[in-house]
TrEMBL record, chain A:
<dbReference type="InterPro" id="IPR014756">
    <property type="entry name" value="Ig_E-set"/>
</dbReference>
<dbReference type="InterPro" id="IPR014880">
    <property type="entry name" value="SoxZ_dom"/>
</dbReference>
<dbReference type="Pfam" id="PF08770">
    <property type="entry name" value="SoxZ"/>
</dbReference>
<dbReference type="InterPro" id="IPR030995">
    <property type="entry name" value="SoxZ"/>
</dbReference>
<protein>
    <submittedName>
        <fullName>Thiosulfate oxidation carrier complex protein SoxZ</fullName>
    </submittedName>
</protein>
<dbReference type="InterPro" id="IPR013783">
    <property type="entry name" value="Ig-like_fold"/>
</dbReference>
<feature type="domain" description="Sulphur oxidation protein SoxZ">
    <location>
        <begin position="10"/>
        <end position="104"/>
    </location>
</feature>
Amino acid sequence: MATKSQPRVRVPATAKAGEIVEIKTLISHEMESGQRKDADGKPIPRKIIHAFEASFNGKVFFAATWYPSVSANPYQSFFYKAAETGEFKFTWKDDDGSEYAATAKMTVA
Amino acid sequence: MTMTSAGITRRQAIGSAAIAVFAAALAPRLALADEAAVAAELKKLYADKPMTEGRIKLDVPQIAENGLVVPLNVDVESPMTAADHVKAVHVFADGNPLPQILTYRFTPESGKASASIRMRLAQTQTIVCVAEMSDGKLYSAKAGVKVTIGGCGG
């Protein structure tokens, strides 16, 4: 059972220079911990998103390493100090090697 | 390091004895981490560097009804300038199958060393948070969470 991982991000469309804005991200993912067993008692292999990264205009400003203790459909919120107009890029790295990405634009007045 | 005549250090001897007791006590059940596992992870990261309590606001519910989704909010007090900012934050749990929960890496551009997430907790336990500052100083905080229904399927 693998749902397609769909990222969702919420970023303010505009900000003042120097303003600290909150960014909220959510991605659908079962975050299989590797601790559970299936009906036959066989362990279900681990499959989680283990790395998250947020960058602005190509520069990484926040990163997270996740372990199996992170809940399914991981929600992550954090902050960014607005300085210039540009684009956020968010990436999630799966144990199976796939990568999910989302982008969002922010205008600084 | 001084060696005993048997060629094993005292620390090694205590360590293996502790592992044996731990394994015997928990072998039939789901192997869960404990305080020693959290301490061992911290030692791997920062050796025996001293830690000061404070500067961290660790926001977790006192009672979590559902261990599958427990909100966790970490907020570290810091000016977040290039000269003085929070570099990393590690969160550990002493009663989950794995001691680590997550690691955050902050930069001065983060503006605020604060982040929220939701975590799984297998049982009632203590959450330990350690923050590393840009000058290398370490701060720590602890919070207990009572879990009504555990969140790590067995």
